[in-house]
Amino acid sequence: MIVPVFAPRVPASRPAVRAPRTPPSPARPPAAPKAAKAHVIRHTVSVAPHRRRPLNAPLVLIVIVVLVSAGTAIAFAR
Fold this sequence. Notes:
Layout lengths: L57 H20 L1
């Protein structure tokens, strides 16, 4: 039996024909960016009550009396 030296060539299959390219659709203009909502809590400005003569407060008067008496005691102790 004689074996052929070269195998017979198999015809190459052709690739499928592509559909013609369509031109790209015109690009839409970029959309304007949406304003992001800031996570901010809006506070109303409250007006502090007006304090009349803050040095007349009882605690301030007591502190002044204690300081004066302590200073007097230190002064007479020397």
